[in-house]
Amino acid sequence: MNENEPQKMMMREGLLAVFHVIASVQSVFTTYYGFFVLDVPPDVSKMFAGYAGKFKFLTFWNLILQAIFFLICMLNDWFGTNAVNPKKPPLIRKFKDFLHASLGFPIATFVTIVFWSLMFIDRELVFPKVLDPYFPWWLNHLMHTMVFISTLIEMIMAPRQYPRRLVGVGTVVIFGFGYLVWVHVIHYKSGIWVYPLLPLMSVPVRMLFMTSMIVVNAILYFVGEAIDNFVWGNEHNKQQQKSHVKSK
Predict the structure, then answer these.
(1) Can you tell me the distance from the alpha carbon of 13 to that of 6, in angstroms, rounded to the nearest whole number?
(2) Orientation angle between helical segments 91-99 and 165-190, nearest 10 degrees
């Protein structure tokens, strides 16, 4: 082992711990503000009131997911390990890796891409101008921009062991399908479509659109796996080679 390697590892561990604290505070604050402080009058938008409230939106489900994930990251810093290839990873590390790979990265990336794409095409389809006086611009970026940036930084700074593809892809597909079922439950209970573009589509087009959204989530899982392999692939291989040499 290079004599500078332990020092580099300690520096990485320290930076990672600091980042996890910052990301945890940011995600918990955003979740708290979004649920308990943000107040859009019903006469401005019915979407934020009535049946299911803010739980109608994938954005808010993702906020909860990211807050839980980064709190788990902190627990892993204290009680687990951030080693590249731990021989016996503790349960907290296994859960952290699984959550980030199967849901954390794909869902955060999906929320960011879809939101800003629709904002570029026609913001009235996703974030009408009438919300501007009640929805601070910085909160919008915390909800729809920083969620992706934070999870991408996590991928660059911390190694992870990806689950079997069947498990990882299956998890994000089940999550996506579950949310689409929830969208239909909301419509059945309240008569409201969560997103304004949905009632503009015929039933067949709507089903095709929703199916394509699930496919996009699955693709994003593979994108995350590719990014992780690009960033950490060589490190994984080095550690495996060292373990192989020691075992001889």
Answers:
(1) 10
(2) 60
- The 8 Å CB, 24+ separation contacts for 5-13 are 12/82, 12/157, 13/77, 13/82
Cα 130 from chain centre: 27
H or E stretch including 148? helix 146-157
What's the Cα-to-Cα distance from 193 to each of 11, 91, 184, 186, 206, rounded to whole Å? 49, 40, 8, 7, 12
How many DSSP H helices and E strands does the chain contain?
8, 0
Quick: pLDDT tens for 120-135: 999 988 899 999 999 9
CA atoms within 13 A on the CB side of 237: 7
Q: Which of 149, 151, 157, 159 is nearest to 229 (CA)?
A: 159
Tell me the pTM: 0.91
Helix (H, G, I), strand (E, B) or coil at 207: helix
Which tokens sit at 157? 């700074």
Complete DSSP assignment for 217-247: HHHHHHHHHHHHHHHHHHHHHHHHHHHHHHH
Selection from 67, 97, 65 nearest residue 81 by Cα: 97
The DSSP call for residue 162 is P
User: Tens digit of pLDDT for each residue in 3-14?
Assistant: 566 777 788 889
d(CA 9, CA 45) in angstroms, rounded, equals 50
Map residue 161 onto helix, strand or coil.
coil
Q: Closest Cα partner for 153 from 83, 237, 69, 85? A: 69
The angle subtended at Cα 142 by Cα 227 and Cα 24, nearest 5°, is 75
| 168's tokens | 């990882």
